[in-house]
Amino acid sequence: MKIFFLGTPDFAVPPLKALAALAGHSVCGVITNPDQPSGRQLKLKPPPVKTAALELGIPVYQPEKFNTDETLDILKASGADLLAVVAYGKIIGDKILAEFKDRVINLHPSLLPKYRGVAPYQWALINGETVTGVSIIYLIKQLDAGDIILQQKYDIKTEDNAKTLHDTLCLMGADLLCEAATAIAGNKAARIAQDESSATYYKKIDKAMGKIDWSLSAETISNLVRGLYFWPSAYTFINSDMIKIHEASPAPEYHNHNSAPGTVISACEKNGLIIACGHNTALKIKTLQLASRNIQSYDSFLRGNKISRDIILN
Known about the structure:
single chain, 314 residues, alpha/beta, Rossmann fold, Methionyl-tRNA Fmet Formyltransferase, Chain A, domain 2, seven-stranded mixed beta sheet, six-stranded antiparallel beta sheet, 8 helices, 25% helix, elongated
């Protein structure tokens, strides 16, 4: 079976490589987003999928506008039997869906119908979920609402953050995408309608979400830190200095402190950097980062920055 792949970021690279290595199938082309300016000199940088596709010797197309007759002609001329979409970043329009009816599939990193929309695994962490996973669905016009072909669960570990979950789910999704492609080729693919009454939608992650509200519980703040690692990061202020917090966890031994939320309870290498949170809970900051500085462990940070007890953050 000939597969045309549509994807853009790092998350889509393992699925592309897995399909390219799948016995009995071939990736006949890749569509990805155009190169984007990057760095201080704004040099054009190719998306990760383009780099991977060229290394694999697969033709790459980068249309500025996707839903055009020209794009449709490229897809039809390739002789593709199946379109596989993984974090492409653009909506697949009616003409292409009609041309490849029931032959467009999508990898989504959640257990649909929960967490439709963008950043599903980040939101799962922010919301304190203990289980997530990946879904392979038939792509339809309605966002992430197509019939389910396959799903696989993943038990979220307490040490997971957005980076580790990204890496785990893209590899899990790569295997599941190959399994789905093989099932479709053999006319053995399942088709399970999603339960619309259980559907949830989440918006795009933005920087403003990262500002920590210390009146929330330590567990809620810890989940925010995990979900926003490494971008855009949770952050707070000490006086006028913004500090990004990359790793933190509840500190139950300091619960029931009776301090105002945001108060520094401890700032020493021995006991750690402990901040009072709402509901009489406390948070231990493990790694953090001053603006334009490298990430530091809390003890390294405290050796170079004197933080007074009882100072209130933000």
